[in-house]
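Project standup — Tuesday

K.O.: blocked on the structure for the chain from last sprint. Re-posting the sequence here as requested.
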Amino acid sequence: MIYLSTLFLSLFITITAIPVLNRFANKLRILDIPDERKIHDRPMPRSGGIAIFLGVIVAAMLWIPKEGFFKGYLIGSAIIVFFGLMDDLKGITYKVKFAGQIIAAFVVVLYGGVLVKDLGSLLPDNYLIPNWLAVPFTVLIIVGVTNAINLSDGLDGLAGGITLLSFCCIGLLAYLILDGNIMITLISISFIGALFGFLRFNTYPATLFMGDTGSNFLGFSAITLSIALTQGNTPLDRLLPLIILGFPVLDAVSVMHERLAKGVSPFKADKNHFHHKLMGLGFFHTEAVFLIYVIQACLIISAFFLRFHSEWLLLISYIIFSSLILAVFHLADITKWKLRRFDIVDLVIKGHLRELKGKSLVISFFFTIIYIGIPVLLLFTCLVPKTIPIHFSILSAVFLVLILLTWFFKRVWMQGVLMLVLYTIIPFVTYFSINNPFSWMQQDLARLDNIFFVILVFSVVMTLKLTKRQQGFKATTMDFLILFVALVIPYIGGAHIHDRNLGLVVARTIALYFGYEVLMGEVRSKLGILTVSTLATLGLVIVRGLIA
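H.V.: unblocked you, prediction finished:
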């Protein structure tokens, strides 16, 4: 339960912090201004990185002792965030930026004990690198990867998605291999929650950016945790960080090489990154991001299955992977290849969707299903657990009072308050219902519940596709990340994970989140029915907790 609590706490903190920080960003002019190198066409607030930092640190600090590695990591992260914030606020030279990264790296190395000394079978007879060489070597790795993630932040959702997948792999390995290493696992889960919250606003079309604060913090944390995971007394392959973070590293090395080959500064910004090249080949913004997500997902799955193999095998595999990526881009460049789009997609598939959108009866049918079905499903879910903890009932009572006060005194806040309440109670009610159900919730009834759930999910998707509204919740590349975390991660670790229902809990929770997001986007200010159903859900939780 501690893992789910951490996940949703970091998600909640990030989501609630972003609107507040955005106001400050606009007032203080912490904005990303468009230029010829950038994709966006209007100033964007760069406050996402601070929200991620708050979500991660607050959620992790609740459970992790402030000593040793974690204390060094906290201090190093604070330094990284400070210099990143200065860069977002006023702009600093690359020399000052490097100085901050080097200081943070030395802190986590000397104070946190993060040190690359063991390269496994790459060195003879289990030879360990001496400290005088290991310290600068580790600092170089940390600074290099931090900048690689920083450079990958070029499209909406790109850096956030890449690192989210990386933290999934790091957290899973820490949980499974290091006897449930709670420190690395909880920090990784905090990042997963915070990044999901951030990507809610950063996925194309983005409404905010993470800035250098966020990208540097993500890069610094990903490489620090992956080194801590694979060094010391562990059976894991010492080169796993190269696979987990290999794509942005390859991108950075490739770009630096191209700049030096042209005789320009390696720190001079350009549009030669892999994501720029994909768009140059004719892929849309979202398609380029999606392709990179898929490549990164393949890499972390490979890292999981190769975790106990020889370092030589991982090194050779990474060299082959890098060569293939570079060869594909080089071949496309010399042949002037461009993506050709098929008329059948635009004329047949999209044409039928446009035709269905014009039929209000169809959208009304699917919307009615989710408008009634989702609140009913949540109410039913509250009936399934054998018991509901009294402290959760007390929290529900607080939420019930909050909704009533908002309804009578500040109704304009009602949508935000409802989402706050629903985002908080849904994961816990879902967890209780799946892990401790009444005996009557068996076989036929459980099968009917699953069928009803699938119908609701399908109706949500159809409503999303057929709605005529220009605003509101839309299907995005973030859907791939959600499905990957909910389905693939529990599957590859399923034989080892003690809580076998974690994937189902996450999948149901996210589906209900989606459903309520779509409902809110469709009903807008007409929140009467949703308010009443939420109050009924809270009332049921309160009663069940009191009579348990």
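K.O.: great, moving the ticket to review. The radius of gyration is 24 Å. The chain has 21 helices and two strands.
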